[in-house]
Design a protein that fits this description.
54% of the residues lie in helices and 7% in strands. With 327 residues, the chain is mainly alpha-helical. A three-stranded parallel β-sheet has the order 1-2-3. Helix 4 runs parallel beside helix 13 and helix 10 packs across helix 12. It is globular. The two termini are 26 Å apart. 40% of the residues are buried. Bound molecules: adenosine-5'-triphosphate and magnesium ion. The site of adenosine-5'-triphosphate (ATP) has 19 residues, from helix 1.
């Protein structure tokens, strides 16, 4: 591969939402011409919290289909399923033993947030960042495009790679990351102080990409807003309105200041009504493409790509095993 390599992924752990699209997939689409992109359906990450096997199987196909419908071009980019390449889990184990300390993982915000929802969380949830590091390092990734919530994990990836290189000699490329500034963090519609999340307790938290467009419009009209009546970007005092303004701006390709001017002197109702229409149109267009892609098409792409990546991952894991004295 002569172009620089991008790696990113999304868990098939629930309904993909506008946060995943605006914070991740939308930026991937624009990167395909300049980089060799590898986009993964990270199913081994999804099982760090309990999943229903039947639903999980469907979600794996659904996520890949969403990548395609959103504009990821299978002729340019490599879309694949994480568990099809067993070197991801092999490398995670090696990094667990060779580079990772308990204290690294105890500090992870995502772990703390997700563990708090369970009585006795699994070891996999704790170890999640190491598997993510393995995903990235296995392909000599140059750049990881992410939402703000993943910065800590990519920082850890860099640390683990450096530690390994220091101990065993140059093996891993140290990846950079790129956070999309606006839309880096789309917040929950029901609680704009927490990020929009697939694993949220209430479906009023998010707009799923597969939501019925009319239902999604209702969610926008019902979204939490703040006291006062001004439509103004002010994250500290008006997180609800600021979140809706961000979604408006990104979906309608319009500057926030322009939207503020348009709604000067108007109330929340009118603003939300217009955004509801924008969201409805976006989903209707997106879903037209989504429902036109067959499961068989998706399965063929996943299979072909795992054969392609197998060669790369096998070469890399062999090099790594040689370094640590296994082989
Ligand atoms: P889960 O709640 O199961 O962790 P998630 O909604 O956080 O799900 P992930 O699969 O963990 O989704 O993340 C996939 C990608 O989407 C990552 O790049 C992440 O940064 C991005 N992302 C997730 N939530 C948001 C959000 N609210 N705003 C912007 N980007 C987001
Ligand atoms: Mg997440």
């Amino acid at each position: 591969m002569s172009q620089k390599i991008i790696f990113s992924g999304i868990q098939p752990s629930g309904n993909l939402h506008l946060g995943n699209y605006l914070g991740a997939i939308k930026q991937w689409v624009g990167m395909q011409n300049d980089y060799q992109c590898i986009f993964c359906v990270v199913d081994y990450h999804a099982i760090t919290v309990p999943q229903d096997p039947k639903v999980l199987r469907e979600k794996i196909i659904e996520v890949a289909k969403i990548y395609l419908a959103a504009g990821i071009d299978p002729k340019k980019s490599i879309i694949f399923q994480q568990s099809a390449i067993k070197e991801h889990t092999e490398l995670a184990w090696i990094l667990n033993c060779a580079s990772t300390r308990m204290s690294d993982l105890e500090n992870m915000t995502q772990y703390k947030e997700k563990a708090a929802k369970q009585e006795n969380p699994g070891v996999g949830l704790f170890d999640y960042p190491v598997l993510m590091a393995a995903d990235i390092l296995l392909y000599d990734t140059d750049l990881v495009p992410i939402g703000e919530d993943q910065i800590q994990h990519v920082e850890l990836t860099r640390d683990l790679a450096k530690r390994f290189n220091n101990q065993y000699g140059q093996t891993f490329k140290i990846p950079e990351y790129k956070v999309r500034q606006e839309g880096a963090r789309i917040m929950g519609l029901d609680d704009p102080t927490k990020k929009m999340s697939k694993s949220a307790a209430s479906e009023n938290n998010y707009i799923a990409l597969t939501d019925d467009p009319d239902k999604a419009a209702k969610k926008i009209r019902r979204a939490a807003t703040d006291s006062g009546s001004e439509i103004k970007l002010d994250w500290e005092n008006k997180p609800g309105v600021s979140n809706l303004l961000t979604i408006y701006s990104l979906l309608n390709n319009q500057e926030i200041s322009e939207i503020e001017a348009e709604f000067a002197g108007k109330g929340y109702g009118e603003f939300k009504g217009k955004l509801a229409e924008i969201v409805k149109k976006f989903l209707t267009d997106f879903q037209k493409k989504y429902y036109n892609i067959s499961n068989q098409q998706v399965q063929n792409i996943l299979k072909k790509n795992s054969q392609k990546l197998k060669k790369l991952s096998l070469a890399k894991i062999t090099e790594i095993k040689n370094k640590i004295g296994i082989n």
